[in-house]
TrEMBL record:
The gene is cmoA. This is Carboxy-S-adenosyl-L-methionine synthase. It comes from the Bacteria. It catalyses: prephenate + S-adenosyl-L-methionine = carboxy-S-adenosyl-L-methionine + 3-phenylpyruvate + H2O. S-adenosyl-L-methionine binds at residues 39, 64-66, 89-90, 121-122, 136, 203. It comes from Halopseudomonas oceani. Its EC number is 2.1.3.-.
């Protein structure tokens, strides 16, 4: 169902801002696997985290679900304990294909946690009480001035003992660290078959769309949103994932 990512393989006279359109949806699994160090580990571990923290009979949100990889992982790991998942993405191309992937998963599992896919802006979504929320490389695409309000709404919706899983690309305040890890990230992409042209054009396309924060900014924002504690559970180069507790 997924194609090889060749979106930036040929010279583009004017590189437009990155959009999660049909072309991206078709190649997204290949793109993210070759672009995000540790992505398969993060996805599989989200299922493990759900098994640890999702409370029986409660709702789980996958916000900015793209093609539903995190939702599929949680369905593989969670017991049939009355939980259900709502996966949300604002791009119709992504949510449509997400439904296709979940339907294919349904055919492979004897029984599966119910999962509903919604096309919506997560900033305008009314969140119901829930025990777990996943923001897997989503917050970095939200305008910076809207990030705290979103986290506050998530914190308010989470039940006692609930958790937020927040995965993000990081910037670093120390320029030496930033330059070293950014250079290694480009080396990771080259090792996965991307050309210098592809790397440069993708960087141009995404620089006005994705705005990473330093880890310290994330941690302070989570405190400001009302989370009692957050900790880093995974980092590979300049990509990480955190768990924030109510």
């Amino acid at each position: 169902m997924s194609e090889v990512d060749k979106l930036f393989a040929s010279p583009i006279s004017k590189v437009d801002d990155f959009r999660f359109d049909d072309a991206v949806a078709r190649v997204f699994p290949d793109m993210i696997k070759r672009s995000v160090p540790g992505y398969p580990t993060i996805i599989e571990s989200i299922g493990v985290i759900a098994g640890q923290y999702a409370q029986p009979g409660t709702l789980i949100y996958d916000l900015g679900c793209s093609l539903g990889a995190a939702t599929q992982s949680m369905r593989r790991h969670l017991p049939l304990n009355g939980c259900r998942i709502i996966a949300v993405d604002n791009a119709e191309a992504m949510s449509e294909r997400c439904r296709e992937y979940l339907s294919a998963q349904d055919a492979m599992l004897e029984e599966a946690i119910p999962a509903e896919v919604i096309t919506a802006d997560i900033n305008a979504l009314t969140l119901q009480p829930c025990s777990m929320v996943v923001l897997n490389f989503t917050l970095q695409f939200i305008p910076t001035h809207q990030r705290l309000a979103l986290l506050q709404r998530i914190r308010k919706a989470l039940l006692p003992g609930g958790v937020l899983v927040l995965s993000e690309k990081l910037n670093f305040t120390d320029s030496q660290t930033q330059n070293a890890l950014e250079s290694l990230h480009y080396a990771f992409k080259r090792a996965n078959g991307y050309s210098e042209l592809e790397i440069a054009q993708k960087r141009t396309a995404i620089e006005n769309v994705m705005r990473p924060d330093p880890l310290e900014v994330h941690q302070q924002r989570l405190r400001d949103a009302g989370f009692s504690h957050s900790h880093l559970w995974f980092q590979c180069l300049n990509f990480c994932s955190m768990i924030a507790h109510t």
